[in-house]
Amino acid sequence: MTVHIVLGAPLKAQDLDLDYQEGDLVLGVDGGSLLVKQAGYPLDLALGDFDSLTQQELKEVDAYANQRYVKPDQDHTDFELALDLARDYSRDDLIYVYNFQGGRVDHFISISYVVYLDQYEDLIPRLYLLDPANTVSFCQPGTYQIKKEPDKDYLSFIAMTPVSGLSLSGVKYPLEDEDYAVPRALISNEFAGGEDMVLSFRKGLVMVVQSKG
């Protein structure tokens, strides 16, 4: 099973392309609930404060969703609530997050910064942020074989913390055992002709981005 979290960014329903399989779980966050309905995917849970929906749209979501959960307070973001509920439903499965940029830089920063919160550390290995042009994942210390997505051209590595022992092989611009004392964005790399590459590091947190040209 995969958990799909659809946020309420200004993506059109016809552009919402979930990698959905029967038995997956779909969570719509605020306006994302309406997007799920319009795109014709099942909606297991609609959640948030729904302040972006009209009364008519909210009625449509209520009639379509299997369940609706209203956020009880403003102490946490809608996305944090979605992650909490995703963990309740599944302790091991991948979590795909759609519309993560929201058309605003602050939305993207808010969403990507959840990996700094201790309560979501266990979700880091299975969290993916997806939009039509980008796939974002997060890596904790270790060694990873990363496969090239056929429709993506560029590969970037964002050291979100100080990083020790960063090595990249199978890419156009390889690295060997590099240390970075501050966060560093290593962007616009490419796969070196193969279908996969190897990333490894001993300490820190790294964001990996595959992007279309």
UniProtKB/TrEMBL annotation:
GO process annotations (BP): thiamine diphosphate biosynthetic process; thiamine metabolic process
- Do the record's keywords include Nucleus? no
Q: What is its EC number?
A: 2.7.6.2
* Keyword check for Acetylation: no
Listed SUPFAM superfamilies: Thiamin pyrophosphokinase, catalytic domain (SSF63999), Thiamin pyrophosphokinase, substrate-binding domain (SSF63862)
Pfam family for this entry, one: TPK_B1_binding
Q: Which UniProt keywords apply?
A: ATP-binding, Kinase, Nucleotide-binding, Transferase
Task: Using the record's annotation, list all stretches that form the Thiamin pyrophosphokinase thiamin-binding domain.
Answer: 142-207
Q: Name one GO molecular function term.
A: thiamine binding
Full protein name: Thiamine diphosphokinase
